[in-house]
Amino acid sequence: SLQKYDLYRQLGDDQKALAELEKARKSYPDELAILGTYVDYYFEKNDIGGAKNMLEALVAANPDNARANFTLAEIYVRENQLSKAYGPLKVAFASTDIELDSKMQMLLKIYDEQVKIEEPVFTLAKQLTEVYPNDAKPWSRLGAFYVKNDDEEQALPMYEKALDFDQSMAKERIAFLGL
User: Fold this and answer.
1) pLDDT digits over 137-156, tens only?
2) Looking at the whole model, is its pTM more than 0.85?
3) Cα torsion at 170, 171, 177, 179 (round to 10°)?
4) CA-based angle 11:16:22, to the nearest 5?
């Protein structure tokens, strides 16, 4: 049970704690609290592979869990498995449970990894402009993606939209482009 797991963890007996957690999971394989406890344990032990496995199980059991999807996507991005990250990111980006700044940081990580921005990343950036239509950050980031793909014609309206909400953010980018 989770109570016994907690007790053994407090006593410093990880082996018995994990045995209790495994018993609980065998009885309730899709129980979100159990899967979440596994995720926390593996992150605490810096076992990213174990955490990833449990996050995959958690997302399978609760596909709309924005936080689990976002955390799983972070691991995929770190492992340079961008194609695996897109599905979880789409779920996470649709939710307002994840802060916009965290989403923007994720897009920046992907941006830095790619020579040219792939279509799924554009879809994610566009999704953020729908979830946060009155915030300059998603519009500006989408503009930056177009610039990276040498499409200044598409970038300009994105920067102009960003200017509608934050004069300081987009002015520098428009000046940089010489537009």
Assistant:
1) 999 999 999 999 999 999 98
2) no
3) 110
4) 130
